[in-house]
Amino acid sequence: MTAQILDKLGRPIRDLRISVTDRCNFRCDYCMPKEIFGDDYVFLPKNELLAFEEIVRVTRIYAQLGVKKVRITGGEPLLRRDLDQLIAQINEIEGIEDIGLTTNGLLLTKHGPKLYDAGLRRINVSLDAIDDALFQSINNRNIKASTILEQIDNAVQMGFEVKVNVVVQKGMNDDQIVPMLEYFKDKDVTIRFIEFMDVGNDNGWDFSKVVTKDEMLNIIQQAFEIEPVPPRYYGEVAKYYRHVGAKSKFGLITSVSESFCSTCTRARLSSDGKFYGCLFSAVDGFDVRALLRSSASDEEVKETLKGLWHIRDDRYSDERTEQTVANRRKKKINMNYIGG
Ligand code: SF4
């Protein structure tokens, strides 16, 4: 039994998000625009990514500090070779109760069975449109939404609990909310709509592009009869609703209009092995990879990770204003290094 580790704002550490690659097979404008991530773009060489044994070691140490949930992100994590072997090893770590994966879904049919056998049960698929032409224009790789929907169906068939995450941007895909809800209404999939945030440095964000939770609710209530679902646990980021009379629920994530920094229990490791206390960090993260590759013992690594959590005071979304957005422009870590 470990004593609870709290940060400067009294938040415990519970979740660890690990980016296992900076590569992706999509080129979405707001994450990896094709003008920047072209054919000549140099991704991290293999030895700069955390090796599986390093990820397992650091996760074991984090579990001793209170981490219970691990989420594997990217880039696109299904591009990391033998990911199932990593999942199987994390699944064995004492104290880890839950492993999730965030993916664009394209390779689910191919890799799903092995991941399931390795112990993965929960998958979040990022899908920002259900209209084929619109989705193709978003991913810049000519991938149809129907292709991803098929992958999602297959994943559900395999036994995964699947959530679909939609980042809603005004004038871009807000007309997808109703058709997507309609499509998933009677499926065993939870869909969540997320307010557009200024993640990374290339997503062209400003306040006018945010569709707030209240605006989304307004759109939804004009089309469906819905009722709220009470929160299930401390720090649950989505506010859930269900269609009256239906089993499936859907969520709204109020990252901008009602931020949830006060219950943010997430530590992040970027694909190059740096620690970040926040998705919006503007300072270079602490180099955990170098620490793991030094002669430091597990106990020394643990003390350092504990210290990093103790000094964490990030609450960017609570403080977001035109000014803070401008101040951090071009200084944040890019999304393909840290996931969403
Ligand atoms: S802005 Fe940072 S501290 Fe706040 S909820 Fe998001 S990741 Fe957590």
From TrEMBL:
Q: How is the cofactor bound?
A: Binds 2 [4Fe-4S] clusters. Binds 1 [4Fe-4S] cluster coordinated with 3 cysteines and an exchangeable S-adenosyl-L-methionine and 1 [4Fe-4S] cluster coordinated with 3 cysteines and the GTP-derived substrate.
One of the GO BP terms on file: Mo-molybdopterin cofactor biosynthetic process
What are the entry keywords? 4Fe-4S, GTP-binding, Iron, Iron-sulfur, Lyase, Metal-binding, Molybdenum cofactor biosynthesis, Nucleotide-binding, S-adenosyl-L-methionine
What residues does [4Fe-4S] cluster 1 bind to? C24, C28, C31
Catalyzed chemical reaction(s) = GTP + AH2 + S-adenosyl-L-methionine = (8S)-3',8-cyclo-7,8-dihydroguanosine 5'-triphosphate + 5'-deoxyadenosine + L-methionine + A + H(+)
Positions binding [4Fe-4S] cluster 2 in this chain are C261, C264, C278
Please state the Enzyme Commission number of this protein.
4.1.99.22
Family label: Belongs to the radical SAM superfamily. MoaA family.
Share what the entry says about its subunit structure, partners included: Monomer and homodimer.
Q: What does this protein do?
A: Catalyzes the cyclization of GTP to (8S)-3',8-cyclo-7,8-dihydroguanosine 5'-triphosphate.
**Name this polypeptide is given:** GTP 3',8-cyclase
Q: Which gene encodes it?
A: moaA
